[in-house]
Give the backbone structure.
Amino acid sequence: MFLVYGVHPITIILKDRILHRIYTKIERDLRMKKILIVEDEHLFLKLLNSQLTKKGYLVYQAVNGKEGFAKAKIENPDLILLDIKMQVMDGMTMLDLLRRDKICKKTKVIILTNIEPDENIIKKVIKNKPLYYFIKSDIKLFDLLGKIDQLFPI
């Protein structure tokens, strides 16, 4: 064992353990699939976050399209779960911005909404190509989680 002048050996061991924990967490986070949930219904947002985190996904949240677009550019998620009707910026506007952005244009998107698609929404969906368009009342949480798991097989 060598001694560093003025530093106790136990201090060095403790710092090594802390660094090891930090590196282990970073390595684990890099392997985890990242999902951004853009949803303004707080209970639904909390439920999705909880269930996806339990399944081993790294989850980010936003409560409107503006915040969601900013987080998507920073975090570069593997999947975005996107509501349509929200304050500040709606989901279809956010999806359009994503598809025009160099970094985010190929990001997988699942639309989760209470809105039945009208002609205008259908045109935007065809143009921006989300993976799925689900009406919340028509899909069970278990089925949604299954679809997400299919996108990222272990």
